[in-house]
Amino acid sequence: MVDTVFGLGGDLSVRRLGFGTGGLVGPGYWGPRGDREQARALLRTAVERGVGLIDTADNYGPDLAEELIAEALYPYADGLVIATKGGVVRTGPDEWHVAGRPEQLRAACEASLRRLRVDRIDLYQLHRFDPALPEAEQLGVLGQLRAEGKIRHIGLDSVGADQLAQALETEAVASVQNAFHLMDRSAAPVLALCEAEGIAFLPYYPLGGGALTLDGSAALAAVAAAHGAGPGQIALAWLLHHSPVLCPTPGTGSPVHLAENLDAASIALSPAELALLDALAP
To answer: How many domains does one find in the chain?
Structure first.
């Protein structure tokens, strides 16, 4: 059976299949989505089902996803890791800009601390490097926040392998978030470096933004049918088998989809099935 636990940052043991909160807010990550209590109930159900890693961001809503997490789950259960992100300011549905100046990153982190009702964020991820500023300067302020006890571990979002290697010369990095799923493995060089360094790789859009659940691949359909599962469940199971550092955090606003996603952790793929699935990507 595939190992379902990962040591995030070397000291936080989490189940590899987590929960992302993008589906709790409106389209384009803007405003609410449905009833607020339904969102809180979904968060509580995820934790009751054993989720130990919840991934969010200050610009989901904006602010709303972090507020929902605190409303639903505070005081937090022992071992529950809340990962959030800063460095992006959202101005409308699917509209955002980077904000990586040291004073902006510090203010964003401190605002997340207040919304999440914590003194220290277990995993604080730089949502994007600001191209107008030296990367070392942005990493430096995260390092300062960690030294002050406001951040436990630093993560990066949307980076290349060279960027990650250079960042590791400045600060310890516990996680990376890049696009990676069954049909898109363009971040394989980043994944290889994460494996070498023991860094968690949190693939965003692990279901291809929903496209994998509708995929017409005969191989994917055959594997799914053999397990009595949906294609999305097989795609999540493939991620868990593909690399021990992959920690997918699929998001949803549906209790049914949440249950389906979490059930994927119990699917054991055979070597022959993995070979079929491995061959799908260009």
So the answer is: 1
